[in-house]
Write the structure tokens for this entry.
Amino acid sequence: MVDAQSAHAAGVQRLVQSYQAAPATTPIRLAKATSNLFRTRAANNGRGLDTSGLTGVIAIDAEARTADVAGMCTYDDLVAATLCRGLAPLVVPQLKTITLGGAVTGLGIESTSFRNGLPHESVLEMDILTGAGEILTASPGQNADVYRAFPNSYGTLGYAVRLRIELEAVKPFVALTQVRFHSVIDLVAAMDGIMATGSLDGVLVDYLDGVVFSADEGYVCVGRQTSAPGPVSDYTGQQIYYRSIQHDRGVTDDRLTIHDDLWRWDTDWFWCSEAFGAQHPLIRRVWPGRYRRSSFYGKLMRIEQRFQIGDRIEKLNGRPPCERIVQDVEVPIARCAEFLDWFLRAVPITPIWLCPLRLKGDDRWPLYPIRPGQNYVNVGFWSTVPVGSSDGATNRLIERKVGELDGHKSLYSDSYYSRPEFDELYGGDSYRTTKKRYDPDSRLLDLYSKAVQRR
């Protein structure tokens, strides 16, 4: 533990030194090998901040069920360190390369979010490198304004270098149940009922999400932790997880190890690996297992974007270029069926991921002001559509619909809001006050500039 703490301290020092050495006119960015942001950005040839030494787990207190974690530690590494102690973070986002700091300064979600909320709610305290170049500790009782404003700030208020988070006890296996529904109204009503009771058919539920394949084919997927030994499925090889949940009617059951359940979506990047041929049986047999993971598909996607390969193929086939639709939105559960009905008619994208959410506590988070005590559903859809008559036509259409239904959308991908719309949705006044205090010289980008103007 001492070695890990010393390495972390040295890493923080290198980060601060690289920040201080960066020219005042150079845009600040982190030097990192992977990213889970999907918005296009202006080219930045400046040298990134040195994050070496900020990628590990610093310490785990199994008795207190807490972990001190460096900001650039991936959930893959964090989970590896906690599962061997029978513990896990309260929310483990779906993709292995998401970092803890990234999930907190952005937004993360998963199938425990109906009971554990969002990742930033389990942060007890964190050390932040602010725009002023200082390292400060933020918690509910210390520098509380930046602690509250940090979620959804996307590095525009500073970077988390250490986070102390809550952990929970977990069992070695997860028993899965997939319930088929023939209408989105019935599916959403079932999710709402599970959120209200925390159970399905009187049995407590630990994990809850769902998938919609069409207007008359959707599934609620529930998981229950168990210590009972028995056979488990493996979706890291030839079998594909999201296909395994499909059936004609009724209910099917499955079992995974807790490790494989946490990462069940990573192997095929939910279903997006299909775009690269990785789900074709013949190609899959020769596709190396180490490359069946979200990080590798992300690299392929960035290559495709850089050389506009998809648009070139569309042109060769006499079709228009495509608009990328990679979005997660939060819609109140009372309006979710209405949104899905509209989406299935207006946007030619399926499958659609559903992840119920309720904030764990009563606190409000000004940059993502969803209401405490209210049930939401995160709706995720990731694909392309033919370009419309204006830039981002379909994305703009979705933004308007989400706004009509009193929802919010995450900012990890392309956004098209006007400045007044953005300020209203993402805590403009509160953000500017906190920004002025902790980044007085505007060394870091403004949130609107980063999220919408793609700087």
Q: What stands out?
A: The mean pLDDT is 95.
